[in-house]
Specification:
alpha+beta; five-stranded mixed β-sheet; 4 helices; 5 strands
Length: 137
């Protein structure tokens, strides 16, 4: 288990912007080459415009040129670790995360594979042409 990743997710969680739900979430991901990126949930009065911490971290990494990720830790202050929403699971599937670590501020931890969280994911191989879309990889 990646303790540094967990600590990064816990540390960034306090920076979340959640004035409506008051449910602060922090996420930290590690790329396959060892870089670390973080993200937080950012709510909006127009609820549909809210972004989850998981996608915020992924999009930041992609903007930095990263495309291959190994693991992500997701931190919440709740009685139990919280799994990512369906939209975040689908975005994770696009990049093939190997390990998802769910944790709470009191250090409860659960670890999953992406396949456990999103069995039968819709991935690029499902599209006509499959891997021919590699130029954007």
């Amino acid at each position: 288990m990646d303790e540094q990743l967990i600590e990064a997710a816990l540390a960034v969680r306090d920076k979340a912007y959640a004035p409506y739900s008051h449910f602060l979430v922090g996420a930290a991901l590690r790329t396959k080459n060892g870089c670390l990126f973080t993200g937080v949930n950012v709510e909006n009065a127009s609820y549909g415009l809210t972004i989850c911490a998981e996608r915020a971290a992924i999009f930041q990494a992609v903007a930095a040129g990263e495309r291959e990720f190994s693991s992500m830790a997701i931190a919440v202050d709740a009685p139990l670790p919280a799994a990512p929403c369906g939209a975040c699971r689908q975005v994770m599937a696009e990049f093939g995360f190997e390990e998802i670590i769910l944790c709470t501020t009191d250090k409860q931890v659960k670890t999953f594979s992406l396949a456990d969280l999103l069995p039968e994911a819709f991935v690029k191989e499902n599209l006509p042409g499959g891997d021919r879309n590699e130029k954007n990889k």
